[in-house]
UniProtKB/TrEMBL annotation:
Alphabetical keyword list: Hydrolase
Pfam families per UniProt: Abhydrolase_1
Highest taxon above the source species: Bacteria
One GO molecular-function entry: hydrolase activity
Organism expressing this protein natively: Glycomyces luteolus
Domain (AB hydrolase-1): residue spans on this chain: 42-273
Organism lineage: Bacteria, Bacillati, Actinomycetota, Actinomycetes, Glycomycetales
Keyword Translocase annotated: no
Name of the protein described by the UniProt record: Alpha/beta hydrolase
Length: 289
């Protein structure tokens, strides 16, 4: 059963989700929420160089039909104040401060890429907070070649600039016919929200995030066998940013986790295959009690 204020209609379209702020530890966190209130919320942890405007509505909206969804900007990102920390663990501390400020003592997590690293660090710090965990396009601390993400990122930003494309078309999708059209469609979907859009990420913020990812890649692995949350892991089979083998590594190390690898797709495999993936995520996250 969902609790909802009388007369308040439930917004289930991310394009229409109201922009809100909450203050914690001197930082004003920008966030959006949608879906029926009450029960355990699904908190979304976003990727490198991303703001609130970078979530694919084809994944958010189906989840928000059944669940209270919260997306947020980390400190120093988008419309949030503060500065970006240079470690994933400090990002997890900031996420905890944000969740505590909203008063939630139990959440489900949906994460992608850097967000999946932050989510893992958060579970290590406070395992009892997280009921279910979705890790997509991500890898474990100390994972092979994670420290090379910066090189791939700068190379693809340059390639995109030369062709006047969005860098995500190169970073997230294969450069074959299927990947190119999926990339263009994805970028177009991110433009569906026309009102009250987020502030773009600053270059300095992205550079600090890349430094944090490099430190994560070179860090000592966490003991993922201690994770008891039901965990869904997904990726494309040709992830150039966070190598696909790392999704398999996560699957091996997190007991009874589920793994989906989408063929002929890259880092953004869940976005390219959103028609197949969204129902799987909805089913996995299930009800909120």
């Amino acid at each position: 059963m969902h609790t909802q204020d009388r007369g308040e209609s439930v917004i289930t379209s991310y394009a229409q989700a109201p922009a809100r702020t909450v203050t914690a530890g001197g930082v004003d966190y920008a966030y959006r929420e949608l879906g029926p209130k009450g029960g355990i919320p699904v908190v979304f942890f976003v990727h490198l160089a991303a703001t609130l405007d970078n979530w694919d509505p084809r994944i958010v909206d189906p989840i928000a039909r059944h669940r209270h969804v919260i997306t947020f900007d980390q400190p120093g990102v988008g419309a949030s104040t503060g500065t970006v920390p240079d470690s994933v663990e400090a990002m997890a501390d900031d996420a905890l401060a944000f969740i505590d400020a909203l008063g939630h003592d139990r959440i489900d997590v949906f994460s992608f890429s850097l967000g999946g690293m932050v989510a893992q660090a958060l579970v290590v710090k406070r395992p009892e907070l997280v009921r279910k965990l979705v890790l997509t396009g991500t890898g474990p601390k100390g994972g092979k070649d994670i420290d090379k993400v910066a090189g791939v990122t700068y190379y693809d930003i340059l390639r995109a600039a030369l062709t006047r494309s969005d860098p995500k078309e190169f970073l997230f999708f294969n450069r074959n016919a299927a990947g190119k059209s999926a990339g263009k469609a994805f970028v177009k979907r991110l433009e569906e929200r026309t009102e009250d859009r987020d502030a773009p990420i600053k270059l300095r913020a992205m550079q600090t995030q890349l430094k944090a990812i490099k430190r994560w890649g070179r860090g000592a692995p966490d003991d993922l066998s201690a994770f008891t949350q039901p965990t869904l892991i997904a990726n494309g089979d040709n992830d150039r940013m966070v190598p696909s083998v790392l999704s398999e590594d996560l699957h091996r190390r997190i007991k009874e986790s589920e793994l989906i690898i989408y063929s002929d797709s890259g880092h953004g495999g869940i976005f390219q295959h959103h028609r197949e993936f969204a129902p799987v995520a909805v089913r996995f996250l299930g009800e909120d009690r």
